[in-house]
Write a structure and sequence with these properties.
Layout (H helix, E strand, L loop, with lengths): L4 H14 L32 H21 L8 E9 L2 E4 L1 H9 L6 E12 L6 E12 L6 E12 L2 E12 L2
Parallel strand pairs: 1-6
Antiparallel strand pairs: 1-2, 3-4, 4-5, 5-6
């Protein structure tokens, strides 16, 4: 007569129960994995950005962004939405108007960004989004020693354009 593992475990528990130990535990029932676990359908191929295009898009975006930042920061409003978030040196701003108000209110008149690197990757296999990391130097007002910076963007495609969902800016010291 074959005894199942479940019966043996419950029988053993019964012995412990008689001794007063583990009386609060329910009878043992093993986990029975399902033969087939449902999975989400694969994303449509047209939604995801092709890896070969990500770098070109990121370079074009960063060129436009820093040209607008350096010449007229108010132009950046069209790149943000009410869902957008900016972290600027650890301080967080949410919404297009709050973000642009922060950028316009920065305590300098002139700035020149010199982009050194632009790296990009698709951010979501089921939606056309990008993660972009930009590093470089910036000169503020009449300074002659550049400051190093890094900025990360999460871009979301809307039609043939992209908008900034998240942005994180840091000066790099050291």
């Amino acid at each position: 007569m074959a005894t199942s593992l479940v019966a043996m475990a419950n029988q053993k528990r019964g012995l412990f129960k008689q001794k007063g130990r583990n009386s609060h535990l329910p009878p043992f029932t093993p986990h029975r994995p399902t033969a087939h676990r449902p999975t989400a359908p694969p994303p449509p191929q047209t939604m995801a950005l092709q890896p070969s295009a990500t770098t070109d898009i990121a370079k074009a975006f960063s060129a436009f962004y820093y040209q607008a930042f350096d010449s007229n920061r108010n132009q950046l409003l069209s790149l943000y939405r009410d869902l957008s978030t900016l972290s600027w040196e650890g301080e967080q701003f949410i919404g297009a108007n709050n973000i642009v108000a922060k950028l316009v209110g920065l305590p300098f008149q002139r700035v020149v960004h010199k982009v050194a690197t632009v790296d990009a990757q698709p951010a979501n296999p089921s939606a056309p989004t990008l993660i972009v990391l930009v590093t470089g130097q910036l000169l503020i007002d009449d300074e002659t020693n550049p400051q190093h910076f890094s900025e990360t963007f999460q871009l979301v495609q809307e039609g043939s354009n992209f908008w900034i969902y998240n942005s994180i800016f840091r000066l790099n010291y050291g």
